[in-house]
Records
---
Amino acid sequence: MRIDKKYLNKLINNVYKYNNKFNGNELKYVLEYLDYENPENDANSWTARLEEAFAQKFGVKYAISHNSGTSTLHSCLHAAGVGAGDEVIGPIQTGIWFAFVCLHQNAVPVYVDSDPDTFNMDPDKIEENITERTKAIIPTHMHGTPMEMDKIMNLADKYDLIVIEDCAQSFLATIDGKLAGTIGQMASFSFETKKHMTTDQGGMVITDDENLAVKIRKHAGLGYQNLTAKQGMTSLMPSQFQNPDFKRHDSLAYNYRMPEICAAIGLAQLENLDEKVARRVKIAAMYDEVLKGIDWIVPQKVPENTKSAYWTYTIKYLGKETIKIRKGKYKCIKFCPVVQTGRIFKTEEDLQVWISDDENKIPLLAKANILVGSIKMELTKHEGVKNPISKIK
Ligand SMILES: Cc1ncc(COP(=O)(O)O)c(C=O)c1O
């Protein structure tokens, strides 16, 4: 059944509204993808176009698209040769993906505590966690603010470790003017719905190392023997692939490939990435301004040589107030964010930032020395509205 024209016009109008995060070329590219007769779809796949544009944006040789920012980390560990009994160092403050990807390699996740000011993994606590089994470090630029990579790279050199930057939250953040993700041997990005740019679900690995790129692509692409670092397969002669001894797959792998339609959306998102990051940075400056002089709310410290991409605006709460939510008591403050989105913050309750639980009621894999809360900063119609946060002063 065809879409009624009036309804279609309404949809198109909504898509191009200022507050819609898909108001760039997303619709155009998706329609081009859906156009059965579009010869470009075969000649130049959307994943290839996204990979090429992403690699160019970051000034690296290879970008390999995936279906999530978890599968990307898994492919990176595989490419790093992380195997049974190896140890991988990562931050205490991250999500379950870090533990899961290590365990899938039969490796051990080793948690390093947070720096109480930057809230990132404390670089000065990494060395004490290195053993002869340590194979890789995953510096994770949490909440958009990059880690100081020089200390990590020095340790990696000293102990011969592979560095995989997790940039899921830090698109276009910089360290000494270099883009986060271009310092370690590999970097992983997530395109899940709330990230700076999204393909709904998806991810990307970047690297300059061809050997690693081939391993990553094979890991994400069912281990086809003739996959290369760039998109496409090495072409084979019929005499090769029709040979009964021909091995189609030469490594154990998964299907972690990004769907073409997602890549079409991703390409349009990438075109506006600078603008999306700039808006978050602008919003963060508004929070900085209203929180000035409040000593019981301490924002994440952005080291001087770095620039944060502010995925969230993250704070440490030093106040005493607790309120009862569900079964536990939580230290809590209520924010009405400067920016709010119909999708994430539906009611005032949703605006609460939970800072800590009441004495370990939440089962944790490991406990950080500090607990922080984040305000999500989706870009929407309420941007700049009244600034109700100033009420808490
Ligand atoms: C720092 C970090 N790493 C990894 C991931 C995992 O990405 P995904 O949700 O796309 O699997 C996320 C995402 O939510 C993240 O924030």
Note: The longest helix spans residues 273-291.
---
Amino acid sequence: MLEAAKAVALSGPGVGGRNGTNFRIGAVLFSGNHVISAKHNELKTHPKLARYSPWPFLHAESSCILHAGFDASHGVDLAVSRVKRDGSVALAKPCTVCQAVIRQAGIRRVFYTTDDKPEVWNVADGSFAAAF
Ligand SMILES: [Zn+2]
């Protein structure tokens, strides 16, 4: 899952830093082994995010959910990978805005990369743990 999200991240434009090339983020929505949607970070904005944030730039996680629709997102898993310029992965824990979107969509679990081992957020009980 996280490898797929990493591939998606690498297909997107870089974001962050003065040149916008510090890192890339990709997210993939999974139902079992079936990919529902796959999106990377975008610099463009989305009107739905403007309801949650004064900085409505479209993050990969929210983009994935908005693309799939809230109904299709209910009860499925999301994987998020952040890839640094040197190709290594880093913390991709969803921001508070994306966490609100994830909760509202009813996502079951969110797997994300860290600087070390991947972690999983069990959305229903709010717990965070090592992923594998
Ligand atoms: Zn976010």
Note: The radius of gyration is 13 Å.
---
Amino acid sequence: MKYNYFTYNGIVFVIKYDENKRIFYKLDDGQLISLNEEETEIINDLMADKDGYIYFSEKLNKIVNSNKRIIVPESINILEVFNWFEKNIPKKYLDNFYSRLATLEMDLHLNAIYDKEILASDYGKVNSAGGYNVLDNTIILNPKSVKVVYQIAQKTNNPIDFFYNEIIHTLIHELWHMASSKHDWNSKVALSGFDTYPTDNVAENNRGLTEGMTEFLATCALPSRFELANSYYFETCFIIQLCVILNFNVLLDSYLGNKGTKILEDRLTQLGFDSSKAYELFRNIQANYYLFNVDGKQNLLGNIQDSLLDYLDVVCALDNRKITLLDTYEKVLVTLEVIKGMNKKPDNYEGIDENIRRFKEIKSKYKTADIVRN
Ligand SMILES: [Zn+2]
């Protein structure tokens, strides 16, 4: 019998049809072999409907229309927001997005702006305006903070834009939490980004990294929201530093796949360091997040950036494409100015000046080499 086959990346793929299904194999020495995970991904990508906009929108439309627990005012084009997600989430994680969305309960409480009873004055932090609950699969905006945002908006030049930008930014942040979460009712284990709940293992919990990644992804939709007032500014900086050292897709895959920090630690360790260094780095990111409001001398932030600079130095020597990313890295290096801008005392943060000195040294070492090479 003649096989239907094609060759891609040097691999001979065979297509068979069985009961309305299309099955792919690879041909090796005349034998049909089942595809491994990587090869399956290649095929899924090749056979994906690249003009899937309309198809996916119909699917989304169906989900949104049949889920009556998504309560959003008509002033927000929620389908457009969801569509941004389906275009940006890698294919293998889309099913989780759809199934979470189908059972999502969401109330933005925008009516709070008309509520005269809500005393908004004691609710300070605009950025913690919303919350996602992994167990119930709910997104709720705090009515009080909705009112705070509304009141702040009235003092700006464009109140309506300001208000909706802030609300949609919060909404997108919470939707990334939803897209990166799973909950198993049988085992009662919840996974969210880099976190596992409940766990006694310090390595399975990293709220700092999870929030940093979530916020970084939200600012990909609305870049103007990446500012010092952002509650997760430090964590977002660490994520972007890690994106330069490793790469974005490795971080995204660990985050959406709930793979913890192990793969990231292994990649960093492969650069030629002791594995305990990467382990400690991620635990420090976690500790630093929880200690955000603790006012006193500390060197966690400085140590985190110092470790990351060790990796950056090696990675630039190994791969000269990284050198072009040094300017990006510089923009997300936490400086004493940044700390001051966040209403914190620079004197309490040991090692930050040393971080900057080291970064400049690394930059001039590789930039000079780069110019000479070119
Ligand atoms: Zn969050």
Note: The radius of gyration is 24 Å.
---
Amino acid sequence: MSLSDVLAVWLCLLTVSQAYVEVYGCPATGYFGSNCSVPCPDVNCQYCHIKTGTCQGCKPGYKGHRCEITCERGTYGAGCKETCEHCRDVNQCSVNNGTCLTGCDAGFKGDLCKTACDRGSYGYDCKETCGHCRDRYPCSNINGWCLTGCDPGYQGDLCKTSCDIGSYGSECNETCGHCRAVDHCSNINGTCLTGCDADYQGDSCKTLCPVGYFGQDCSDTCINSYTCDGCSDVSGSCDYGCRPGWIGYFCQKRMQERSKVRRLAVDKSGR
Ligand SMILES: *[C@@H]1O[C@H](CO)[C@@H](O)[C@H](O)[C@H]1NC(C)=O
Ligand SMILES: *[C@@H]1O[C@H](CO)[C@@H](O)[C@H](O)[C@H]1NC(C)=O
Ligand SMILES: *[C@@H]1O[C@H](CO)[C@@H](O)[C@H](O)[C@H]1NC(C)=O
Ligand SMILES: *[C@@H]1O[C@H](CO)[C@@H](O)[C@H](O)[C@H]1NC(C)=O
């Protein structure tokens, strides 16, 4: 590098720095003049020429040669280059800094309404709590709908409604058993919370009493409980037939199958 080259670079730098001082010379923005005490002639001007007062740069929220234009609806900031986020009212987005002056749309929070509600909440000011959504997926931050359906026992878009009385489980597809009180059937797993109707047993009261038993909690015994195939829950008589091998009103008689077979055998050999 020759001496003249170095000189040329130095001169160039000097020019640039002088230009900088001329444009942005005053430490306080919005003023000009040799004392930096005269306000820029254009009210929304942030930087004006130190000698002439010509505007060189507008305050955030304004544009135009004399900064006479307010940012269009929905934009803000230096040169109006930023876009307002999810303001509840886009007319109430500060042209200066993008703050939503009357709050956010449903599903968003923060001064700028740029941040979605935390997982598990939704709505205006993120004040609502998601319902019983299935899986690890949360609900929509905007309207609270569960995106992949409900946990067992719940229904509706929000999964905040229990299954209708008498049904339970996934998508409320299951039907409650013979609960003593159908409104005490667990909406989640079908357990009959206050026990079963007469003649039924099990958590969900879907199983008949064992053969030979009947009544509340299956605590009554049929007459001939070993041979009856279910009996009247009033009299205990064998109204539903006998177990294989037994006959009679009380299923008290053993079928005579053996003798029948023997008789046939005798008939055959007798010919
Ligand atoms: C600059 O400041 C001096 C002294 O502080 C004052 O006499 C003079 O009037 C000022 N000039 C302007 C243009 O304000
Ligand atoms: C944003 O600007 C508004 C006025 O437009 C003002 O009230 C608010 O304090 C400013 N917020 C911040 C964070 O500077
Ligand atoms: C529930 O029933 C609906 C309609 O009958 C069916 O499409 C769905 O697959 C069922 N869901 C379950 C979990 O059984
Ligand atoms: C069934 O759900 C009820 C609540 O509805 C609960 O108390 C019970 O423990 C559950 N039973 C089983 C077997 O999960």
Note: Confidence is low (pLDDT under 50) at residues 6-23, 265-271.
